[in-house]
Amino acid sequence: MRYLAVILAAAIAISLAGCVLKGKPATATAVPVVPKPAAVAPPPTPPPPLSIPQVHPELPAPQPVSAEARATTEPPGEPPAPPPAPPRVTKKGNTPARPRPEAPPPTPTVVAAPAEPDARPRIQEIVPAEDLNRLKASADAHLQDIRQRLERLPRRGLTNEQKANVETIKSFLRLSEEAERGGDMRKANELAERGLVLAQGLPGAR
To answer: Which listed site, 71, 90, 191, 201, has its alpha carbon 20 to 30 Å from 61?
Structure first.
């Protein structure tokens, strides 16, 4: 401490001596004080991002898929067709023979009966007397032949078709007699001829 005090005293004495030699009073120069810059608070640290970007993403290694899992994910396809049924083997000896269906009896052909004459008066053609006599004789002969054939016809053993023909013959016989009574000898003869043709086809009537 004494050493420092000696040095300071020597320095002051030298400075005072210099001022006396120059003859000017020494003025103390004020040294401007440089203000210290205010300490700037560091900015707050930003929060860490929610997701960390990956420049090189790392993918997990592929895992093998089992056959059961693959079957559940595949779309269902069409169901497989059922296998054909095996043919049935039948023994010929044990299988009874099926009876053949009997043929149906022939349908009798029924001759349509002649239509009844119209009740309205008809215009008759003018026939000469000679022709009227000839037609009347022919009609009477046919009607007589029909009656004889019907009398010789057996009453039993006739088929349905023959019975139907007998009824048709009787209808021709009746209509021919009505036409003769009405004076239409031409029609009476035609009806008698048609009845005779059917009567000739009856059994035992020849």
So the answer is: 71
